[in-house]
What we know:
By secondary structure, the protein is an alpha+beta fold. The chain contains ten helices and ten strands. The strands form two sheets. Strands 4-10-9-8-5-6-7 form a seven-stranded mixed beta sheet, with helices on both faces. Strands 1-3-2 form a three-stranded antiparallel beta sheet. It starts with 6 loop residues before the first helix and ends in a 5-residue tail after the last helix. The model is unreliable at about 290-295 (pLDDT under 50).
Amino acid sequence: MEVHYYMDDLLYLEKLGFSTNEAKIYTTLLKHKMLNGYEISKYSGVIRASVYDVLNRMVNRGTIFKIDGEPAYYRPLEYEKLIEQIKRETEANLEKAQALFQSISSEEMQEDYVLNIVGFEKFIAKAKELIDSATQEISLSVWQKEFSFLHDSLNRAIGRGVKVYLFSFEQIPLQGATVFSYRICDIDNLFPYRRTALIVDNQQALIGESHIDRGIFTYTRNRSIVSLATDEMVLNIFGYRYIEKKALLGQKNTSKEFLSVMDRLADELGIDANMTKNMQVFNYQRERGDHNGDKT
């Protein structure tokens, strides 16, 4: 009696590693228990030109057994044993695949790639993703505009017990975080851009600048870049703490007052105009000072 097949049945077996012809032969033998090659071809629908090649493959794999004789007969491996065999092989292959994927993933992580992100919305999306993934510590140098988009994610991080450190030249209120803020009310006179630096768990960094026309940011796990971003954050906090301890600024400050304090500290520490500087910021502040009638 010929076995009738449904395509879904064959698809299930094919997903377990059977070819279409192997699936037909195995199910035929399950039904008839033991058949010779001619009978298998007749009942399964596998053409005789192909049936013996398929049978030999299945014998070698242990799916069916050959009983030598004239003619030779074939019987199937009990389906319970076949299922157990497939489970063992699948689990072993999955473990090997997992080990392979982990090794490849680790190699990628060691490459310390740098990803450029163009556009403010993409930057905010990436920043939220990193903040939401934080488990230990977040350090963020930020401006009011960027902070307004990240506020909820930062609150959730604090709720998870993540330590959050914020530095800003503007007023940035965030309950539960350690905030270092110069509270400068006219920050546009100090910088031609809004620079943001986000460090998460001392392992990932997202840094960049927002300009009027566009924003360009960089994401990386590169240890050197993460360390540099962290160092800049620490130096900003040291500077803030020193000014705070000396009571050089008040609770609300102007850019003119801030630059005046910087000039005093430069004189005190022996830092003159010939030392290296951020020329983009230096020229911007000089132009703004000239425009406002001040030279700071």
